[in-house]
Design a protein that fits this description.
The radius of gyration is 23 Å and the shape is elongated. It has eight helices and two strands, in the order αααββααααα. The chain is mainly alpha-helical. Strands 1-2 form a two-stranded antiparallel sheet.
């Protein structure tokens, strides 16, 4: 995988949005929100202008127009350049083709689970499982509704998110079963550790 000049996922979202047509930053933000990209990309609207400036500095976008409507301030319209299209294509190709190590916070919590008593972990994971099941049901309902108006191509990230939630719920359920039945190897030592403190 090639090292990128920019690695901020928001920059990639901006490039992909400008692929549609030239826009000013406020319109980019509105388009991202309208298309639901804020559910798959962390979008800090305050830093959007900084991202656009960085893209311009690297030659991936350029000013195509400056609009003025009535007494409103001027709005700079940006369009994607040929270099920006190439960068977007290469960046997307890398992301789709090569798995990358990510650091989800739940994985961090699992790696440090020993600081909690196993009985407390059971209670907490039961709460998590309930929340995951509610989230999955809600996402599935929303997705079914979206299928009525949007082509599936524009919903694949929602499908992926749903499947990840369902997979996590399945894993949590299995781990809970091991904890409750006492089948988890080392659980007695884990309990004993907390009885000493």
């Amino acid at each position: 995988m090639r090292r990128r000049k920019l690695r901020n996922p928001l920059a990639l979202a901006v490039l992909a949005t400008l692929w549609q047509k030239p826009m000013h930053p406020y319109e980019i933000a509105q388009t991202l929100r309208r298309q639901g990209k804020d559910s798959s990309t962390k979008i800090n609207y305050g830093s959007l202008y900084t991202v656009v400036q960085s893209l311009e500095k690297h030659g991936f976008v350029e000013v195509t127009d400056v609009e003025r409507q009535g007494n409103r301030p001027e709005r700079t319209v940006y369009g994607i350049t040929a270099a920006g299209r190439q960068e977007t294509t290469e960046w997307m190709s890398d992301l789709v083709a090569y798995p990358a190590k990510e650091y989800p916070i739940f994985e961090t919590a699992l790696s440090l689970l020993g600081v909690l008593h196993p009985d407390d972990v059971v209670t907490l994971l039961e709460e998590r499982l309930e929340a995951l099941l509610v989230q999955a049901a809600s996402s599935r309902g929303a997705l079914e509704k979206l299928y009525e108006t949007l082509p599936r191509l524009f919903l694949v990230e929602n499908e992926f998110q749903l499947h990840m939630v369902e997979a996590e719920a399945e894993w949590v359920r299995g781990f809970l079963d091991e904890l409750k039945s006492g089948a988890l190897p080392g659980i007695e030592e884990w309990k004993a550790l907390h009885e000493k403190t």
